[in-house]
Design a protein that fits this description.
single chain; 338 residues; alpha/beta; Nucleotidyltransferase, domain 5; 5-stranded mixed sheet
Length: 338
Amino acid sequence: MQNPEVFILAIESSCDDTAAAVLHNDKVLSNVVANQLIHNQYGGVVPELASRAHQQNIVPVIDAALRKANVQKEQLSAIAFTQGPGLMGSLLVGTSFSKSLSLALNIPLIAVNHMHAHILAHFIDEDGYDKPEFPFLALTISGGHTQIVKVNSFFDMEIIGETTDDAVGEAFDKSAKILGLPYPGGPLIDKYAKEGNPKAFPFTKPKVPGLDFSFSGLKTAILYFIQKNKQENPNFIDENLNDICASIQHTIIEILIDKLKLAVKETGITQIAIGGGVSANSGIRTRLQENKYGWKTFIPKFEYTTDNAAMIGIVGYQKYLSNRFETSAVVSKARIEF
């Protein structure tokens, strides 16, 4: 029977966003994120700067989440936090704060795998969004991960395909860097792609056996393509930016869809859920919503795609219901068993 009064405070600090959320059962009462813009000038996340910014942000972000939810800390049932994977310095800030607050309030502490959270974000109670039924296939796509996961239950998941090199988010960002676009470049490729012809410049899709992915070869092909054409025409990028971005995005989406088709064929599972920061990409969302393949697709609310604490909270809620708690000896893990 569902406990009607479970309040979870969730804390996410795996990379460069400090986030806190308060959930009442599976309903999000608040979801606050503080972004770190300092990394933009460096063209990527600087781990030392990220951890320092988390230290500055974590108290005001948690205070804002509690205030927005209109929940007192004495009402909290448990603290859920991101244990990993992620940047060690960033994770340590969230872990240490969570352990201290759990101890001070004498309430349970719940460790959450960041990638599980991207998948289970679909189980947040949100008007207008259906929840997948077990088993389903999850495509988790982000700056650090590209995986196809067979999800049998809340705590029974199996990776059946993953990238052998770069993640899909890296492929977008590195392609953007080749084009001279500022960091983070993935959203900019998405923006320009909307105005371009996706078949203007065909790129060869890598041949990778099974359900695994590879993006390093595509990234190299894009680099050589740009170098060659710039030699012939120094203004090539400026004159063709929309078409180049559309062609890159189209190729990446085709790679993802091809692997999903194979996964459906091999497992017989036709429910597909996407998660992770790259699932915010409009081209990917549109392609999955076309429903050309007879799949039932689940696309999370936009604010639950990028790193956020609400997704940590929903895993925390499910773990709370099954008493999956940690002691104060729990440690952060930059890499963590799936």
